[in-house]
Amino acid sequence: SAFWDVSPTLRALAQAEPQTDTDGLSLVPVLLGEGSQQAHEYLYWEFYEMGGKRAILKGKWKMILYKTNTELNPRVELFNRDLDPSEQSNVAAQHPEVVSELQRLMDRAHSPAEHKQFKLAIERQ
């Protein structure tokens, strides 16, 4: 789960109409012991500090892109969390197909920022 699950959870507890414009999932089934939690296909984050970072977590894979606000070809780190839970071995070069798949998911999840300060470098061209 992630922080964006809070709003759908509160709406479900209040018996309000579900939101359609959110990536969040209600945690009510788990909170009330009424079943298992619906899983996210993946989790995606963006951070704008220090040149920008983007991260995605899908299954055993975690990918991080660095300097996304300032560089057109940001540094990529890919970790297999099943084999490397402490994320010490960058395996991006060994798994270009995973990097490509996760990059497509990142691009699908990203919403372009309106303010220039928060735009990705590729959006500033």
Give a concise summary:
This protein is of the alpha+beta class and 125 residues long.
Notes on the structure:
The protein has 125 residues and is α+β, with helices and mostly antiparallel strands. 21% of the residues lie in helices and 18% in strands. It folds into 2 domains: 1-39, no CATH class; 43-124, Arylsulfatase, C-terminal domain, CATH 3.30.1120. It has a 4-stranded antiparallel beta sheet, with helices on one face.
Keyword list:
3 helices, flat, 21% helix, 125 residues, Arylsulfatase, C-terminal domain, alpha+beta, 2 domains, four-stranded antiparallel sheet, 4 strands
Uncertain ranges? none
Number of domains: 2
What's the average pLDDT?
86
- What profile does the largest beta sheet have? 4 strands, antiparallel
Stated plainly, the CATH topology of the largest domain is called: Arylsulfatase, C-terminal domain
What's the tally of helices? 3
Number of strands: 4
SS-based class: alpha+beta
Strand order of the largest sheet: 1-2-3-4
User: How much of the sequence is in beta strands?
Assistant: 15-25%
* Morphology: flat
Helix content: 10-25%
What is the first-to-last residue Cα distance? 35 Å
Mind telling me the C-alpha Rg? 17 Å
Order of helices and strands: HHEEEEH
CATH second-level architecture of the largest domain? 2-Layer Sandwich
Give the CATH level 1 class of the largest domain: Alpha Beta
